[in-house]
Every structure is written in structure tokens, then in C-alpha cells.
Amino acid sequence: MTSRHTTVPTLLTIAAAGSLLLAACSSGGSDEAEPVAASTKTQEASAAAEPSSEPSEVETTPAETEVTGDVAAPGTTVGFDTYLSYTFTNTDDEQAVLSAKLDSIDLATDSERADLESAFDEGELDGYDLYLIRMTEKKVSGASVEFNSDYSYFDPIKESGSTVQSVTVIGWDGCEQQSFDSAYDTEGAELQQCYIAAVPNGQPAPAGVAYTGGYEDDNPYDSYDGSPLQFIG
After folding, report:
1. In this structure, are residues 157 and 140 in contact, taking their beta carbons and an 8 Å threshold?
2. How would you class 197 by CB atoms within 10 Å of its CB: exposed for 0-12, middle for 13-18, buried for 19 or more?
3. Which of 30, 94, 163, 166 has its CA 20 to 30 A from that of 36?
4. Is the dihedral of CA 121, 122, 123, 129 positive or negative?
5. DSSP line for 147-213
6. What is the DSSP string of 30-97?
7. Predicted pLDDT at 124
8. Are 132 and 102 spatial neighbours (Cβ–Cβ below 8 Å)?
9. Are strands 229-232 and 77-78 parallel, antiparallel or unpaired?
């Protein structure tokens, strides 16, 4: 089964935006350049000149690759501060279990709105109330997910579960969407994600976000062929 999920119809994206538009981030793949350990010629020459009579021992720490932990059933709905876990497939087609919770849904402050309106300088945000939806993610188990991300798998929604107009801003510190770093991958560090929703003036605030599972085949959380996880405030 091939997923037909797409966020394009509900995506409002900056074309050019001063200080708010920085280098584009990956929305589900991996960064091309990973750190590479540098070798030292002096060390290599020393090792060649003074061979050891004893075999060297190299300590290695195996990566946590076993996928453990319960995952939420499709269609599960929770409120604030409650984690739901789900499977995530990295760019090497290996699985991990991740977990996320809804932290807050806030109307943008005057200062935040001014920042956004300076980015959308042709009045694209006129007539909309802007909300910042913040979440926390953590890794539970499984394969490495460093340099991957899943922030594009979450959509702002109404209480009914239907999607709300989303706004994408690349590189704005006021509401960041982040890829998974080493600390998140191996040290259990939490990661904060933020989503911007635009609601026509006078209409109810967004109720939360839905996790749609991305673009994988056989995706039980797909908006069309499955049932998303819902984080409702």
C-alpha cells in the first residue's frame, strides 16, 4: 500500500524572508555531511616504527539497535503532557521507536507576529490569527536516527481532526523545527519542536497536532489509509 499523504495543499512557505530565511533544513532525510574522524600522520608513523608485541584492544560500544517499547494504536488521542510512541524508519530503512507529547498552544505575541509579518511581506498573513504549537520528542529505542527528522509528519488540526493552515518558516528561532542530533540519538536528550498554525480571524484556536507517519508504505497513521495519532490540548 502506498501512502498518498501530502502537506502541500496546507503549506504556506516563505519565498524570501530576510533574517528569518536561513539554509533549508531536511524534512525527513539526512544531512549529507557527517563528522569524520581525522587521522594524524605522526601517530601513524609512530605506530609503524614501534610495533607492539601485544595485540591492541579497542573498546567499542554497540549501538542500541533493538526496537523495544510499546507503540500507540492508530487513532489514539491524548491531551497535554502525555507521551505517545510510534515507529520511525530512518534513511537506511532501519526502525526506531520515538515518542512525543504536546506542551502548549499559544497565540503569537505581538513581537512574534511582527517577526512573521516581516517575513511574509506581501500580506499573506493578513486576516489570520497565528498560533505556536510546541511539542517535546525523545527517542525510546532502535536504530540510529541522527541527521534524520520527523517534524514534517505533524500537522496542526482542529478538534474534529481536520487540518489547519500551517505556516513554514525556515530558520526562525521563535519557532524551530529541528533534525535529530547525536544527543537525541544516543543520550536520551529531549528535542523541542514548534509548529505555526494560521486560523482565520475570529475562528477557534487550533486544538493540537496530528502525527501522520510520513510517506512510508503500510503506514497505519496515514491521513487517508490509516488513522493519525492526535495530540489535543
Report:
1. no
2. buried
3. 94
4. negative
5. T---GGGEEEE-TTS-B-EEEE-TT-TTS------HHHHHS---EEEEEEEEEETTSPPP-EEEE--
6. --S----PPP-HHHHHHHHHS--SS--------------S--PPTT-EE-BT--EEEEEE-TTS-EEE
7. 94
8. no
9. parallel
Q: Beta strand 229-232 with 208-211: parallel, antiparallel or unpaired?
A: antiparallel
**Which residues lie below 8 Å from residue 226, measured CB to CB, with a gap of 6+?**
74, 213, 219, 220
* pLDDT, mean over the chain: 79
Q: Regarding predicted confidence, which is higher, 13 or 172?
A: 172
Instruction: For residues 150 and 153, give the distance between their C-alpha atoms in angstroms, rounded to a whole number.
Output: 5
The residue among 209, 206, 212, 207 whose CA lies nearest residue 227 is 212
Read off the pLDDT of residues 113-151 as tens digits, 9 standing for 90 and up.
999 999 898 999 999 999 999 999 999 999 999 999 999
Output b/e per residue, 105-129; b: 16+ Cβ within 10 A: beebeeebeebbeebbeeebbeebb
All three cell numbers of 209, joined, read: 497536532
pLDDT one-digit tens code per residue, 25-81: 333 443 333 333 333 333 433 344 444 444 334 333 334 567 788 999 999 999 999
Q: Are 154 and 195 a contacting pair, CB within 8 Å?
A: yes
Distance separating alpha carbons of residues 92 and 182, to the nearest angstrom: 17
Q: Which residues pair with 99 in a beta bridge?
A: 85, 138
What CA–CA distance (Å, rounded) separates 229 from 222? 9
